[in-house]
Amino acid sequence: MKRGKGMKFVGDSRVPINNRKPNIPKDYSEYPGKTEAFYPDFLLKEWMVGAVFLIGFLCLVVVEPPPLERIADPTDTSYIPMPDWYFLFLYQLLKYSFASGPYNILGAFIIPGLAFTALLLAPFLDRGPKRRPLDRPFATGFMLLAICAIFYLTWEAAGHHDWEAAKKQGMIREVVEVDKEDPAYKILEANTCLSCHGGNLEGGSGPPLAGTKLSVDEIKDIAKNGKGSMPPGIFQGTDEELQQIAEFIKSIEK
């Protein structure tokens, strides 16, 4: 009879296993600064920090609601759109000659794409166990370069933007319906008056004409000789057309 042949092994769940190890995290003592497990210790801290920032952001939204601008007017060609603050650096990049005009695709896609790809690859270029910034030159260098570039471009975009004019051009105005089939309206449209004063003459980069307090003669004088930022010679029609549009503007009431 061979050894073990015919023998049966019976296990008993009541017998404890002495060599079973408790569920403890790995020893990270060989890595400076890493003394805790990613899950659940480190991940729990990340979630707690994220929750604090989320609650703070929601409080800011409740206290200071986002400003709303007037309804978009396709006839207002003087309106200059402005991106949100976190895209100002890309907005500023498109102002430079090497990233605008015929090179627009370079500034809109290629340069930002290369920059973000470099940031994504930075951790893989330096995979050492050390966590001190001076011991990780590639990752630290890419991050500092990105922060400096974003900060400088954002600063330039914000510093050279006319915020008062942007506030006025987006201001919600009372819209008055005008007769767009009127011959006088067609004359205003042909002389590009609507691009500054709005499709319903509610105002744009120029002042509103609907409900104006000016007289017919004053309207004619401004249309012919200009006033303020409006240069003379904008209106190129006849005296009869000038009289017609002046009376049309005066007839519009808010």
Explained architecture:
It comes from Caldibacillus thermoamylovorans. Pfam families: Cytochrom_B_C, Cytochrome_CBB3. Keywords: Electron transport, Heme, Iron, Membrane, Metal-binding, Transmembrane, Transmembrane helix, Transport. There is one protein chain. This protein folds into 3 domains: about 30-65; about 85-160, no CATH class; about 185-250, Cytochrome Bc1 Complex, Chain D, domain 2 (Orthogonal Bundle). About 45% of the residues lie in helices and about 0% in strands. It has helices spanning about 40-65, 90-95, 105-125, 135-160, 165-170, 185-190, 195, 215-225, 240-250. The longest helix has 26 residues, at about 40-65. The N and C termini lie far apart (about 115 Å). About 10% of the residues are buried.
Please describe the topology of this protein.
Elements: H1 38-63, H2 88-93, H3 104-125, H4 137-159, H5 163-169, H6 183-190, H7 194-197, H8 216-225, H9 239-251
Helix pairs in contact: 3-4, 6-9, 8-9
Gist?
This protein has 254 residues and is mainly α. The chain is 47% helix and 0% strand. Keywords: Electron transport, Heme, Iron, Membrane, Metal-binding, Transmembrane, Transmembrane helix, Transport.
Task: Give short descriptive properties of this protein.
single chain, 254 residues, mainly alpha, 47% helix, elongated, electron transfer activity
